[in-house]
Amino acid sequence: MSKILVVEDDPGTASEIEAALVDHGCTVTQAPDGRDGLVKAVSGTFDAIVLDRMLPGTLDGLGLLAALRAAAVQTPVLILSALSAVDERVRGLKAGGDDYLTKPFEALELTARLDVLMRRRTVASQETVLRVGDLEINLLTHTASRAGNVIDLLPREYQLLEYLVRHSGQIVTRTMMFEEVWHYRYGEATNVIDVHISKLRKKLDLPGLVPMIRTLRGSGYVLDAIN
Amino acid sequence: MAQAMFSMRSIELFRTSGFRLALVFLLVFGAAAGALFLFVDWQMQSFLDQRSDEWLTREMQSLQSLSEDAVLSRLAVRSKDPTNAERPFSLFDRSGKLIAGVSLSYPDHAVFDAPFDFADRSAARRDHYRGLLRHRADGTAILVAQSLHEQREFRERLENATLFASLITAVFGLAGAIAVGVGAVRRLDAMSDAAAQIVKGDLKQRLPTGRAGGDIDRLANVVNEMLDEIERLMQEVKGVCDNIAHDMRTPLTRLLASLERARRRATSIDEYHSYVDEALDEIRGILKTFGALLRISEVEDGLRRSGFVDIDVKAIARDAVDFFEPAADESGVALAYHSSNNEPAIISGDPSLIFEAIANLIDNAIKFTPREGRAVVEVEGNGHVVTVTVEDTGIGIRAEDADAVLRRFYRAEKSRHAPGNGLGLSLVSAIARLHGMRLEITTPDIGTRVRLAT
């Protein structure tokens, strides 16, 4: 069970976040301001921190983050902000944030991103071949095969598949995929992503094999091998 | 009360630039006319003096060439002829006593051999003369003189005429200045009345303009154009508010109906779930519309310009085409990217916004192009001029809709039933403005051509 610290001053938003995280199976500790947040973040052992960018008092989100990283605490941090401008995002990530989510957001978007952040630390980076069930992708040659059959993929399709495989068993949202593979921010991307996924599915799910990519109502996909 | 009113108005009159200008003109003109008069007077005076001096010298010379007797007889003849009264000749002895000629008194301040002015002191005529006095060999003195009476009268008349003319000019000038000033006060009153009404909220009101097309009219016309623009913007804001209300009411009504239906009909958890999912989709749609509206105003505020970097529009357009290709394929539209060369087209901008703008245009092109159609994204860079053209063979935009489609929530008749919120092109337009680009929509024979150009 993951332990999450939520640093958020608005009680309404804080309880929404807590509810979403508890439903997702996490235990949540709340901190209503920057000082309290910093004390708890340094002393406790959390798997991830959800940090509001705008906090009351002397210590705001980015200040807390800088202090945390200066104290060599490497807990992954997801920054929440009402500011969507690209340079705000860049500033947030430069200050030591691991991901940046613009308010308002859906619960699935928050939990999916947190899962990815917490998992990121455990994936070894030396591997050259990743396997999920009978699917195999080669990180060096950018090729994929399923049950021994080579799958012919376009570069973007490969990138999409690699992202799904790297986070197999986890929910990834359309927005996350779009940001990861296309590197832009575009809120309306969701329907078009669906088309990319369905094309990928057609190539992946060869006749007689079990479908690997599941759609989640709302805005996400999961790649896994059920069997 | 009336007096106070009047004095207040007269102060106002004096303050008008028209009145002041007229007054200044009057003073300058008066000064110039006065200087001209003095110059003419001086010139004339010296001309007349010169003429009489010449005459005096000539006469003196002719007298000097005559013998004593001849002089005496000539003086006698002249003094009897009344036509020569204006030009008397006289001969005086050493003591200044008259010997012959016209009975002038001997001049008080006699000057010899040069013309001088003198007054005749004899009782008969107290006239002023200009004369030339010269000694003769026998000690007598001969005086040749010309009356200044005529000259003085002429001068007097001239002075009177000038004075009268100045008076008339001053009266007319002042009257003109007052007329101009009063006119200006009236116009200002009319304008401030109109402005006061506009301030009260009557936006239909306009400043009055005359037919003359003078400087104040030009100003009034400019202000009126500004008022037209303000009125248009107010209408647009009102239109946007109405549209928001309308566009929100429709999905909210559907949401309400869906929840009511769930309440009435759903008997199992699964059924409830499916109704809740329906409601969630509806709410997501509403939030998306709000999000798009906020994004437009965020972009219009220009805050994002601080995050500008150098970006290659061609690379972004290629990414966008690449991103939409499967979707286009699915809709049976052939989507292609084209450029005449591979040189990057660099502008300063926000890559995600440029992607969003191009993506919106491609999305529209796919949405409004029937199967078997084509959509082409073309990027050309030439120095600082970068153009992005998205052209399709779709249903097109009517020429009269070309401007309206940029308005928030505006949906042309033909597109009313397609999915979307009528905000796409407004957003593209805002992004274009943020990047200093023009957005042009043209309507070729088939389809639509949208062009972004720096």
Q: Which descriptors apply to this entry?
A:
heterodimer; A: 227 residues; alpha/beta; Rossmann fold; Arc Repressor Mutant, subunit A; five-stranded parallel beta sheet; four-stranded antiparallel beta sheet; 12 strands; 41% helix; elongated; B: 454 residues; alpha+beta; Beta-Lactamase; Helix Hairpins; 4 domains; five-stranded antiparallel beta sheet; five-stranded mixed beta sheet
Question: Layout of helices and strands, plus pairs?
Answer:
The complex is a heterodimer of chains A (227) and B (454).
Chain A: E1 3-7, H1 11-23, E2 27-31, H2 34-43, E3 48-52, H3 61-70, E4 77-81, H4 86-94, E5 99-102, H5 107-120, E6 129-132, E7 135-138, E8 143-146, E9 149-151, H6 155-166, E10 171-173, H7 174-182, H8 190-204, E11 213-216, E12 220-223
Parallel strand pairs in A: 1-2, 1-3, 3-4, 4-5
Antiparallel strand pairs in A: 6-7, 7-8, 8-9, 10-12, 11-12
Helix pairs in contact in A: 1-5, 2-3, 6-7
Chain B: H1 2-15, H2 17-64, H3 68-80, E1 89-92, E2 98-101, E3 116-119, E4 128-135, E5 141-147, H4 149-200, H5 215-265, H6 269-301, E6 309-312, H7 313-330, E7 334-338, E8 346-349, H8 351-367, E9 374-382, E10 385-392, H9 424-434, E11 438-442, E12 449-453
Parallel strand pairs in B: 7-9
Antiparallel strand pairs in B: 1-2, 1-5, 3-4, 4-5, 6-8, 9-10, 10-12, 11-12
Helix pairs in contact in B: 1-4, 2-4, 5-6, 6-9, 7-8, 8-9
